[in-house]
Amino acid sequence: MRICSLLPSATEIAFALGLGDEIVGVTHECDYPPEAKKKKVVVKSSIDQNQLTSPEIDETVRRHLRERRGIYTIDLLKFRAANPDFILTQDLCDVCALDYDEVLQAVKWLAQKPKIVSLAPARLADVLSDIERIGVSAGRKVEADGLVRRLKRRIERVREQASRLDLGPRVACLEWLDPLYSAGHWVPEMVELAGGADGLGRKGEPSKEIGWDTVRAFKPEVVILMPCGFDIERTLKEYSLLHQLNGWSELPAAKTGRVYAVNGSAYFNRSGPRLIDGLEILAQIIHPEQFPWAASPEAARRLS
Fold first, then answer.
1. 3-146 falls under which CATH superfamily?
2. Model's pTM, two decimal places?
3. Were both Cys, which of 56, 100, 126, 180 would link to 91 (CB 3.0–4.6 Å)?
């Protein structure tokens, strides 16, 4: 096969299933495993996150959406040169990845019609189903079944240990810092599995903008910063935005020093196998008495 993966999480899944040698095109954000960075980039973004602040990124994204302009674009010449016969893409979020309709338009440039597998997961079970679906479509069913079994065992291990504990702390997972967004889709489910109570996000629903008064009223005992697409170092650059909020220091989490930054890009934003790493990190953050700290400084850090 000649595979173009137009989604970082799909790239991770493909490599995990032993398809790395068959990948001929990826996006500029496909950085895991490290071998993915050696593949030809056929998708790029019109927004350089490294040059803009969180408010500037948000405004740029909103302007693109108002003007019905795509945030991500396919390099048609490179895409045609890659000549894929199998494409992995998504139909979940226009902000996080290439628009599905643009994929369909680009396919018209190809000499032959490729097989297209489009992903739209909203819950952890959907992510596992996507792994199985890619495995079946790409002739890696045995590998996919094995990977899903291992991931399910890890999920159950966390769930079982957390279930022994009393009612967990109130947890706020922030997917953007200015404006504030609560994390959605699979993250509230992960918090629940790890023994916490997420009163801001909704399981299986998109991330949403929330007001600061809503966060204050929730009185989170744990705050976890996981801005979409950011690693920890980039998140730390934005951390001062929260200190400017009226009453930030009065939050229970701030008073007790339970504010954390995590690598959102690696472990929480992408719907791939590393979400289970993220679940284990959440368990260590939420219930350190039950889950000894094992996260690396690149994965999670306590800020205050």
1. Nitrogenase molybdenum iron protein domain (3.40.50.1980)
2. 0.93
3. 100
